[in-house]
Amino acid sequence: MATATGKNAKPGAEPRGQADLEAELQQLREDVALLREQLARTGQHGYGAARKAAAEGVEQLRVQGEAAMEQLRTNAKDIEDQLTVAVREKPVTALAIAAGVGYFLALLSRR
Fold first, then answer.
1. Does a structural domain hold residue 53?
2. Considering the entire predicted model, what is its pTM?
3. Are 16 and 5 in contact (CB under 8 A)?
């Protein structure tokens, strides 16, 4: 740590020379440069880690989305099969239901 010269100097302390101050300033500059490099490396590491985590998250969401779509397809196919069976078993009932739904949608579309 630098010592003060002049009024605030400690009694018995020798005043520091210009060369000592310049040496300390140079050392301080080197320390700041080293810190700057370390911060840059840390920032790059943090960016790389965040990018990797984001890529893994995207991949995981893609896989989950594909699984959900496959489940929806399976459910839709099951419903279609059930409707087909129901229409074949009771065609008149199915026709009456379809006519009722059509009439209801026509009423809604007029408003």
1. yes
2. 0.45
3. yes
